[in-house]
Design goal:
This protein has 8 helices and 9 strands. By secondary structure, the chain is of the alpha/beta class.
């Protein structure tokens, strides 16, 4: 399904750093007006300047994606400046895993509020306009980590699995309205978030390379984008493992 006119905007949450920043610059290079959403104003201004240096057009608004009303206002501002959103990329995310002997629920609540509810708030801000125009694309940046529960990453694996499942439902639900739903499952990408990891990260890739793969998949109308290929292949095999095999293998890795 086409991703709207090239004159229509791409809006990206979590656009101040990491994958979101790289994806914003990539879309700017491809001639798309880009709307930037994140909490940190100085970083957003720097990303907008980088897009301008690459010959693109960008606007930004500082917002916390866990605040639904603020997201609505911010998206309206960006659309007023850049034009209707053809693509909304829900990229804002993070992980708040409980430390040893801490209760599970508080960290899980924070993780779901940022990743899952932040995604839905972003979609709610653009879907009425997309439905009225009978075109548009909503994109969730999930993770290969959602394909199977990982030790010491249970809330992150759970929220990414929830995002993936939700996008499967929305893909079928919105298709008759002319709206595409794209789920993206990256592997390990070098970002400020992954720099904190203290375990091996196989097939680690740079954010710029990840952004090129993502932008190409979105504009090509793919419903699912998994990368890198070899890690996605490994995870497909891992998903099929019986629990007793998975448990033994994963203990060796962690």
């Amino acid at each position: 399904m086409p991703s709207g006119s090239a004159a229509h905007a791409v809006i990206i949450t979590g656009a101040s750093s990491g994958i979101g920043r790289a994806l914003a610059i990539e879309f700017g290079r491809r001639g798309r007006p880009v709307g930037l959403l994140a909490r940190r104003e100085p970083e957003l201004a720097e990303v907008a300047a980088a897009i301008a240096r690459a010959g693109g057009k960008a606007a930004w608004a500082a917002v916390d994606v866990t605040d639904a009303a603020s997201v609505q206002v911010a998206v309206q501002r960006l659309e007023a400046e850049l034009g209707p959103a053809a693509i909304m990329v829900a990229n804002a995310g993070g992980s708040f895993e409980p430390k040893a002997d801490e209760p599970l629920a508080p960290a899980a609540r924070r993780t779901f509020e940022l990743n899952f509810m932040g995604m839905l708030h972003a979609f709610d801000a653009v879907l009425p306009g997309m439905k009225a125009r009978s075109e548009g694309t909503i994109v969730a940046v999930s993770s290969l980590a959602g394909w199977r529960g990982l030790p010491f990453g249970g809330t992150y694996s759970a929220v990414k699995a929830a995002m993936r499942t939700c996008m499967e439902s929305l893909r079928v639900q919105l298709r008759p309205r002319g709206i595409a739903a794209v789920n993206i499952d990256p592997g390990f990408v070098r970002t400020p978030m992954t720099e904190k990891n203290r375990f091996p990260m196989p097939f680690l890739m740079e954010a710029d390379e990840a952004a090129r793969i993502m932008a190409t998949g979105i504009l090509a109308g793919r419903s699912q984008v998994d990368f890198p290929f070899l890690l996605a292949l490994v995870m497909r095999i891992v998903r099929l493992m019986p629990n007793w095999v998975y448990d033994r293998v994963i203990r060796l890795a962690f």
